[in-house]
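Protein modeling request. Please complete all fields; requests missing the sequence field cannot be processed.
Requester role: graduate student
Desired output: 3D structure, token encoding
Chains: 1
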Amino acid sequence: MTIQVLGTLKSFISSGVAIGLSLAVLSASAAEPRSGADTANGSSETDRLAKVVGSVSLVLGKAYIKSVGAPRRLVTAGSPIKVSDRITTAVNGHVHIHFADKALMSVRPSSRLEILSYDYNTERPELSEVKFDLEFGITRSISGEAAKAARQRFRLNTPIAAIGVRGTDFVVSATETTTRALVNEGAIVMAPFSSTCSSDSFGPCVANAVELTDESLQIMELNGSTKLPRLLASTEIQGSTELQKEVQQAISQADAEGESNGSQASGVYVKEVAAVRVTDAASDLDPPAIALITDSTPSTALVLADINDRQLVWGRYSVADNLSDLDRLSLSYAEAKAGREITVGNLEYGLLRTENGIKQLDKGLTTVGFSLSSAQAFYNSDSGVVAMEVSGGSLDINFQNNQFATELNLNHSATGAIDFFASGRLYDGGYFHSRNDSQRIAGAVSLDGQEAGYFFERQLESGNIQGLTLWDSQ
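Delivered output (474 residues):
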């Protein structure tokens, strides 16, 4: 996955544009903290979160916005962007954001970006404060008036690094353990988080900082094995050409969707982001239509007649007594087994699939988006077991680069709204799985790529969540 991301980064390098690295490991000094609880314009925190700071100028494929105190919604062209909004793109999703100070951000496929702060002071731009958090994936930033005038108050965080800006155009990729960056114009400063470089601060850090300028065709990298960001020579970028082709195939899928909706497909290329037309004022935009999402859990337990024509079916080995009245999605194992073979499962459930005898996926599959057909989720705590609402979700599988990404929206009064997100590798035979310290997921796709299903588990401080899903291709 990391090398693939690097391949995507290489695709952004325009001919003749140079990137350079000048090491500047300086004495420990904390980045400039934010002063006061209110913004530079003196507005309250509530007003700050409610203020529209930008809008979506282009969306291809599938992407979502989650705002504070509001349900997740699909991104559409013209969607307003507010402070604390989190933008999540699917495998074929791509979003361009235009901010009020004429800054531009591109959120690439399989990425999540949060707008932590965007306080643009129109009267005194040098007092502006801008801060982003790239949780994972790739973003490109072209600075606006705020970042140009207040470079000491601009910050982009990744899981392991702080990035300040001394230029106008740069690209960053991030995973939990690695951050990579290149500069198309100007310069950036990257530093690992430390006691003197806090994620809460604004502006570039000074301690253990490295400056990257636009003077050579190289990339800066920080990972868990290095104390300082280092220069990544082009000879270390293995397979970037082939991986770039794979990424472009995924983008081409999004292009096709964009054309069918009347979008300009050429806008998907980040090099052309500067050509996106700007609306007069983001705050004057009409609010987007919000897609209504209902509970995906069947109201009554499924029976064989309901799903006998499906290729993927959940069968239960045994269900605990306290779940028997809540289960809606599974058949007895004997019913589910008829004409199907087991793919993945846990102690209670198995996902069974009709097969062709050789467990081989059909050829020619590309990037497929799936809609949620049905799901169930349970929250188990000291107070007992309750059924959760599954209000929506997404699943995207790229069969060419063997990657999947999914998200589920869960809710219950005992837990509040919970977004379950996972991504990882698709294996031979159509199996996929991913796990970390707090959650795991395992599933399979039908051999023709038309159906999918997975079970998921997530540990919370006061209990755990487990559930099943079934999906249909869109």
